[in-house]
Amino acid sequence: MKKMKLSTILSLGIALTACSFVSLNQGAKNVSVSNSIDSFNDCKYLGDTNVSIWSKADTFQSDRSVESQLDILARNEAVSMSGNKVVAKTAINDGKRTYSVYSCANNESAQ
What we know:
Strands 1-3-4-2 form a 4-stranded mixed β-sheet. The chain contains 3 helices and 4 strands. Strand 3 and strand 4 form a beta hairpin. 36% of the residues lie in helices and 23% in strands. It has one domain: Translation Initiation Factor IF3 (2-Layer Sandwich), CATH 3.30.110. The protein starts with a helix and ends in a 7-residue tail after the last strand. By secondary structure, the chain is α+β, with helices and mostly antiparallel strands.
């Protein structure tokens, strides 16, 4: 009985981790994440994007992991807005964050 409970708990943990995994789209490889737009020249503000991971996923992951996944989602969204740079606009709250999207003429390589 104990083995069955442990197996169930492990399976649930694996399933929860899988639900929170995000991947970078091919076109988003050229989109970079920055702490500030101040260090870049010739950028046009395109708008904001709101991204989120499953709201309970941050319970099972480190802050850095949650931030990394949100950054990837923002980079993916920036492509659909013709952007090549994203800057976090808000703090992470319940697995959600708002990013500003820019199109910059002199974009460094993506992080």
